[in-house]
Amino acid sequence: MREIFEIRDADGAGRIGELTVPRAGVTVETPALLPVINPHLRTVEPATLESAFGAEILITNGYILYKSKEFRERALSEGLAKLYDFSGAIMTDSGSFQLSEYGEITVTNAEILEFQRDIGSHIGTPIDIPTPPGVSHERAESELETTKARLDAAESVDVGEMLVNAPIQGSTYPDLRESAASHAYETSLDVFPVGAVVPLMNGYRYAEMVDVVRAAKRGLGADAPVHLFGAGHPMMFALAVAAGCDLFDSAAYALYARDGRYLTVAGTDHLDDLDYFPCSCPVCAERTPETLRSLPAARREKLLARHNLHVSYRELRTVKQAVREGNLFELLERRARNHPAMVDGYRALLDDSAALERVDPVSKGSFFYLSTDSARRPEVRRHHDRLGRLSVDGDRVLLSAGDDNSRFDETWRLNPPFGPVPPALSDSYPLTIERPERLDRGGYEAAAAGVARLAEANPDTEFTVAHWGWPESAIDRLPDGVDVLSLGADSQHPDE
């Protein structure tokens, strides 16, 4: 087990943890946001990030410092902590982004790791090959082999107490991402960034992003801290955390501010289009869009960046609280409805519900059914798996949405989307579900799947389903040997 990362709370694949950074002498609570600091363009000073936003960790580009005439010698003589006036942890990138953008950088893998060590970086990065989406499997595999070789070589570099990232590449090919993660986890390196996903996020390809992350998670152990490179927009924090990511780096707060863009958890607005601020952070509470637009460009940019940071850190705290309370899926479902691409991402995550179920806590707070997607949550899958192992007492069993009936040997409640509920479990999580009266078809269809699991496990038992207004699509999913009894029409639950 890696001793630098400890998990305190979990919900689905999301977790709250503590990442110990020995060289910095600090422990960072995750999920954590790493604001990107460009030494030449400090839109918000690192000291302000720490004092005003509670930042515990940030990221800066080691290659830019390596090439900088203005800051290279200062970084070497003073160290990053003094240069940036920041007492938290500082991660450095290696120039891989510049390599992907310009095709060449003038430094070797060993040289950039040693430079990061010498400037006092707390978490350094080797030079990986960021393979973009859309390339052939052959190219992605070839470039991944180069990345693997560089991770292996990084193990032999004397980095002192500096932690080292082990980037996971492989483009959009799940087999390569899983292979890359398995190889990275077998090294002695420490933190595991999932790289080259910015094009997916910029293109709102959140389903593919989730597939990439989940493939990487399959190759990693539970004690591996996972960094999603370039994930800086607050609208997708809940999705990324639910997929199993622990660290995010954001240049978005500054880049978007430079373009006059205003971040929200629902997306991005342009300052020119706003009549009212939907936020009550200090920037927005003290100004109107009109007064902010009237300021000089440099001042406007700094204030807009501060707002973008406020909304980002607030959303991260919201996500943490959801993990702590066990309602991350409820938060994620609300956030997913902000954009169609987020719905795709949420559904891609639920496609991996079998893996999520293995790490999802068995007891939480309340289960809120919000849409047909709720029927695919890991809690429902876990209950259906349990039904496949349960036996019943008696030859004739009623599965009822209404009252008990003495003509049967035993009566179980019928509780969509879970299906049959043993009497002993009726008051336990998640069967104390809160759901709307106008339940959609997906909830009833999931309940029918639960009936099928129980019937399959007890082939010698006669089951009768007594339902109240189930749609035909759910009735059709019941096994042939199950009798069906309608308790009456219900205008609250239409068939279609």
Automatic annotation (TrEMBL):
Keywords: Glycosyltransferase, Metal-binding, Transferase, tRNA processing, Zinc. The keyword Zinc applies. The keyword tRNA processing applies. Substrate binds at residues 128, 196. Pathway: tRNA modification; archaeosine-tRNA biosynthesis. Residues 13-340 form the tRNA-guanine(15) transglycosylase-like domain. Binds 1 zinc ion per subunit. GO terms for biological process: tRNA wobble guanine modification. InterPro entries: ArchSynthase1/Queuine_TRR, TGT-like_sf, TgtA, tRNA_ribo_trans-like. The active site is at residue 93. GO terms for cellular component: cytoplasm. It catalyses: guanosine(15) in tRNA + 7-cyano-7-carbaguanine = 7-cyano-7-carbaguanosine(15) in tRNA + guanine. Its cofactor is Zn(2+). Its EC number is 2.4.2.48. PANTHER family: QUEUINE TRNA-RIBOSYLTRANSFERASE (PTHR46499). Belongs to the archaeosine tRNA-ribosyltransferase family. This is tRNA-guanine(15) transglycosylase. It comes from Natronomonas salsuginis.
